[in-house]
Amino acid sequence: MKRRNVLAALGVAGSGAAFVTGSGAFTSVEAQRDATVEVADDANAYLSITDTGNANAEYVTEDNGSSNSEFGLDFTSSNSPGGGGVGVNANAVTVFEDLFEVRNQGTQRVEVEVTPLAFVRSSGGNTTLIVLAVPQSGFPSVEVDPGNAETYDVIVTATDDAMSSVNITQTITVKGEAA
User: Fold this and answer.
1) Mean pLDDT value across the chain
2) Which residue among 25, 52, 92, 107 is the one 20 to 30 A from 164 at the CA level?
3) What's the pLDDT score for residue 146?
4) Residue 14 and residue 20: Cα distance in Å, rounded?
């Protein structure tokens, strides 16, 4: 047999073997796996939301009506620390510094965003109340490394005292996404 014929035969055999064995790619796989998820209250979750422990912490509330408590803010007379004031001043800007913190208790850096940035309540065409949650190190979102926290201030502007008590029933959403 000639050398060229031997090389050609080996080439055909090699390509046929590759065709038979395939490339190793697949189009689908189905497998059953276990997953366990535990729901924690705001203070113990991977993205912890708690008061800062300072004097303004008394404006932070927790709904303990279920097995998992939820964080909230209360600036009304029913939550007057030390029995003093009964609300924010009309036609003024009130700042509650170091009110709450969002702590990254996970394993990777997260971008944290609080939405909506502001709550607006109006009556009769006049804006009466604006509430704004502001992170101290950046705006509107911040990156938080594992084990670290971002502290938030809350700014309240009341431009009209016609409403003696305003209940904002909207929800603050704290979103953490891997950075």
Assistant:
1) 74
2) 52
3) 95
4) 10
Alpha-carbon gap, residue 160 to 146, rounded angstroms? 42
pTM of the complete model: 0.68
What is the biggest distance separating any 2 CA atoms in the chain, rounded to whole angstroms? 107
pLDDT score of 2 more than 80: no
Report the C-alpha gap between 130 and 11 in whole angstroms: 78
84 CB neighbour count, 10 Å cutoff: 7
- 72 strand-pairing partners: 61
Burial class (CB in 10 A: 0-12, 13-18, 19+), 143: middle
Beta strands in 32-148 (DSSP E): 47-51, 60-63, 70-73, 92-104, 110-115, 118-123, 126-135, 141-144
Asked if residue 140 has a cis previous peptide bond (ω within 30° of 0), the answer is yes
Question: Do 128 and 166 meet the contact criterion of CB atoms below 8 Å apart?
Answer: yes
Which stretches of 14-68 are assigned E, i.e. beta strand? 47-51, 60-63
AA letter at 37: V
Whole-number pLDDT of residue 84: 67
What one-letter code names the amino acid at 2?
K
What is the DSSP pairing of strand 110-115 with strand 141-144?
antiparallel
